[in-house]
Amino acid sequence: MSSTIIGDPLPNIPWEDKPAGSWDVMWRYSGNPVIPRNLIPSSNSIFNSAVVPYQGKFAGVFRCDDRRRFMQLHAGRSEDGIHWQINNERIQFSGETAAELGWVYGYDPRVIWLEDRYYVTWCNWFHGPTIGVAYTHDFETFVQMENAYLPFNRNGVLFPRRINGKYAMLSRPSDNGHTPFGDIFYSESPDLTHWGCHRHVMAPNGGWQSTKIGAGPNPIETTEGWLLIYHGVLTSCNGFVYSAGAALLDLEKPWKVIYRTAPYILSPQTLYECVGDVPNVCFPCAALTDAPTGRIAVYYGCADTVTGLAFCQVDELIAYVKANSCV
Ligand code: BMA
């Protein structure tokens, strides 16, 4: 491999080889969707969810919209990353900040191991959407921290390590509705509470990413830069279409975009991506990686209804990003 992941081995990463004859740089798991909408009694839909390796197995935080159609976060476990047990009760965040802020809704979680614990970020209601932050050691108790920003913001995604001594997050300032704009910004913090030194990372750029963009899974450190898989939105005559692309960001100054795909790497094309509560949505929120093999397994929401799994190989994806860059 010419380009490699800087990270840990994950020999039990869910994986399926690319189908023979496929032209795609990212390919779908043949058993998709891996999480059906009605896996638990309380759910209307389970999508846009985040998973991590946990104690030799897997754990995660799942967006489960309930049958009132309220947006909730639930914890879950898996032996293999494919078959999931998700708690029927939503996460009850603990701590003084949780008591102070209260709970209205949460959606689109990301989860990352950072230094000594797992951090969860999500879109959290606080007089409108902004970025909620919490930590857990065991996926049972989740301690809520301060929201990272004032409203309105979405797609808050932490980097897996400090950069130049500071914690780092990507986010997408937005509005109180179905935002028709949106660029990705970078912010840093000394303590995961106070965020500043904001930098612009990238703006929409035509085609599948012409209306708005937002970070997807937490950035993956590679020898070529931070590999960012992100979503982009096109406004069609029939509404928004959510696809995914990838970019390489500078390792020390991640607001500097080195390469960025002009074509999408995943777009809504299968029945479960094109038909559901919100049609035509592929929304990646998590990526598992196995550094020795370069394998990447991406979890993505499909049509705001179910959760799918897709795969790529780091050297192939980076070569594709470079060869098809719009930067
Ligand atoms: C965005 C978010 C996502 C959702 C997408 C498509 O604004 O709300 O959770 O998947 O819209 O509905």
Overview of the molecule:
- With 327 residues, this protein is mainly β.
- It has 3 helices and 21 strands.
- The protein has helices at residues 96-101, 271-274, 314-323; strands at 27-28, 43-54, 57-66, 71-78, 84-86, 106-114, 117-125, 129-136, 142-144, 153-158, 167-173, 184-189, 196-202, 212-215, 220-222, 225-236, 239-249, 257-260, 282-290, 295-302, 306-313.
- A hairpin with a 5-residue loop joins strand 4 (71-78) and strand 5 (84-86).
- The longest helix is centred in the C-terminal third of the chain and has 10 residues, at 314-323.
- It is globular, with a radius of gyration of 18 Å.
Characteristics of this structure?
3 helices; 4-stranded antiparallel sheet; mainly beta; 21 strands; 5-stranded antiparallel sheet; 327 residues
Topology:
Layout: E1 27-28, E2 43-54, E3 57-66, E4 71-78, E5 84-86, H1 96-101, E6 106-114, E7 117-125, E8 129-136, E9 142-144, E10 153-158, E11 167-173, E12 184-189, E13 196-202, E14 212-215, E15 220-222, E16 225-236, E17 239-249, E18 257-260, H2 271-274, E19 282-290, E20 295-302, E21 306-313, H3 314-323
Antiparallel strand pairs: 1-21, 2-3, 3-4, 4-5, 6-7, 7-8, 8-9, 10-11, 11-12, 12-13, 14-16, 15-16, 16-17, 17-18, 19-20, 20-21
The structure holds beta-D-mannopyranose.
Beta-D-mannopyranose binds at residues 48, 107-108, 178, 242, 278, 281, 283, 301, 304.
